[in-house]
Design brief:
The structure is a single chain. The strands form three sheets. A ten-stranded mixed beta sheet has the order 8-7-10-11-12-13-2-1-20-19, with no helix packed on it. It has one domain: Tumour Suppressor Smad4 (Sandwich), CATH 2.60.200.20. Helix content is 9%, strand content 33%. The protein is globular. By secondary structure, the protein is mainly β.
Length: 296
């Protein structure tokens, strides 16, 4: 049974976080006391994928079956690092920005809908993203023309027509989420890349100082783990404050967990500690810029 079928069956379930929220009268930070408990709550809270976006509903059926599921969209910005167009689950349509039919608008000579990224889950292939060419459009993966879906791995090069090349970054083999990066910033309207976020524990994202973190942050004092569902994003700090840090010191009043409800309607900010005397930086979640824009 596929991922989306499992989610459809769970439509009637109320998540653990929603039950807590109904008792407290607010939809706030999950109250689990450890990283493991928080992520268990995230898995328990998985529910149905979001409804299809109106601007993409008239696009071609790229999945070869029923109408495509649209991703849940937002933007993510990190101070002095960069910003990304974020798409959670579903099928992400890639196409010409001016046409307004794609979720990711590309400022390049491509078709209105040229290809898609499709969240896929199977017994043999595991969880990840497939690249699917639109009918009649030229799409190459590592130089080989595609005539059907193909799984995307770290370092893969995607060519949409003769003039546009995108590179896949998926450094953590344990995570099904990936980044799609353009060689020129203007291709994505100034965004640093497209974050294709696989929902649930299989798509967990790690932000940290090492090269295997999907989102790098030089000087980070601790890793951050992020897990998404249709209801929200759970952020958990992966390490405790440094030994010997005085009470009331940097980060003492910061929560170890944050809950970002989705769909996002306002800017949400989480402060991140850095090593030494470096100033803290911010992780900002923002509403999408608009349909078909590379920045969201």
């Amino acid at each position: 049974m596929g991922l989306w079928s499992l989610w459809r069956r769970s439509l009637g379930r109320r998540s653990l976080w929603r039950r807590r929220a109904s008792r407290s009268g607010t939809r706030g930070v999950p109250q689990s006391s450890s990283l493991r408990a928080a992520l268990e709550a995230a898995r328990e809270g998985a529910s149905a994928p979001p409804a299809q976006l109106p601007d993409a509903s008239s696009g071609p059926d790229l999945g070869g079956g029923s109408a495509s599921q649209a991703p849940l969209r937002l933007r993510l910005a990190i101070d002095d690092v960069g910003d990304w167009s974020v798409h959670i689950g579903g099928t992400i349509l890639l196409g010409q920005a001016g046409a307004g039919r794609a979720h990711v608008g590309l400022h390049a000579p491509v078709a209105a809908v040229h290809a898609s990224l499709r969240a896929a889950s199977s017994f043999h292939g595991g969880e990840g993203w497939d690249l699917v060419p639109a009918p009649g459009e030229e799409v190459l993966l590592d130089g080989v023309p595609l005539d059907g879906p193909a799984a995307l791995g770290d370092g893969a090069r995607v060519a949409l027509g003769p003039d546009l090349c995108l590179t896949v970054r998926r450094p953590d083999p344990a995570s099904a989420s990936l980044l799609l990066c353009a060689e020129r910033d203007e291709v994505l309207g100034g965004a640093g890349g497209v974050l294709a976020w696989f929902p649930g524990p299989g798509g967990r994202i790690r932000l940290g100082p090492d090269r295997q973190a999907l989102l790098g942050l030089a000087g980070a004092e601790e890793d951050l783990l992020l897990e998404a569902s249709d209801g929200g994003i759970l952020l958990v700090r992966g390490a405790a404050p440094a030994a010997g840090e005085p009470a009331g010191g940097a980060g003492a009043d910061e929560p170890t967990e944050a809950w970002i409800p989705l769909p996002l309607e306002e800017v949400r900010e989480v402060r991140l500690r850095l090593r030494g005397d470096a100033a803290a930086t911010s992780l900002c979640f923002l509403p999408p810029a608009g349909p078909g824009s590379g920045g969201g």
